[in-house]
Amino acid sequence: xxxxxxxxxxxxxxxxxxxxxxxxxxxxxxxxxxxxxxxxxxxxxxxxxxxxxxxxxxxxxxxxxxxxxxxxxxxxxxxxxxxxxxxxxxxxxxxxxxxxxxxxxxxxxxxxxxxxxxxxxxxxxxxxxxxxxxxxxxxxxxxxxxxxxxxxxxxxxxxxxxxxxxxxxxxxxxxxxxxxxxxxxxxxxxxxxxxxxxxxxxxxxxxxxxxxxxxxxxxxxxxxxxxxxxxxxxxxxxxxxxxxxxxxxxxxxxxxxxxxxxxxxxxxxxxxxxxxxxxxxxxxxxxxxxxxxxxxxxxxxxxxxxxxxxxxxxxxxxxxxxxxxxxxxxxxxxxxxxxxxxxxxxxxxxxxx
Length: 353
Hints:
Radius of gyration: 25 Å
CATH superfamily of the largest domain: MetI-like
Shape: globular
């Protein structure tokens, strides 16, 4: 297993290179780059990355600049400011060299380095992704197992209704409902509406800091959990139902094994494989993309919002920096998922594959 893990770790390098390379050339070919954004901002054509009626940023760069009648010297200065006065291949190889040294450069529109921006946004993303994923798995797996064991019972029926309702309500809509009811919208004012901690957080005791931290996270995590646990619960139930009806389970029961031993000694390992297989995608979704609207609604500045702002503003260093982080984390979690396969079911041996 050690040799397999080393091979997978070594494969991270060419995989990340391929991701960055493909996206680099796709982004370079897209209209409305940083230079056009800067020119449009100077002329008041664009606000918050949204083009005006003439769609100046959607046209090819040279045509839009000529139609604006700007001084070519000013355009040259802006191109030099953003590094676009050099050929594309030079910028590409410089980027690869910097990324090999873990130097992601500086943001084009924010007064900070890309690394600084990512570090500043990490606490929010880690808080939302870690706690929501942990709660979802701690609730969904036991609930799915119980529903499978008590299939067609009253418990299975009413919990299925709860799951259907939870699955039908989008997370961002449930977040708005929570704000209206519990965050001073129209009824109760129990929870704060914005931020990860209070303004006086540094003055609180350790217990006070912990309570304040979870006080701010209660509503956003609840919104993420409600929208995320339904699918995993039904996946767990169906996986266990499929295994419970197989021949080896009937054989174990015929030999006198208890239901608890049959469920957790035989069924659990086989049924959990599909759950583990979906863990990387679930974690990445909760950690970044799934929390974007939640971050916006609760005024939390995380990596999801940072990546979205970079795309809208064509902030290339931030775009590629966050893409690098997303890709690297996804590949590492994939390796952890494979290791979990062998832990759950020792019969799986990746060395022979």
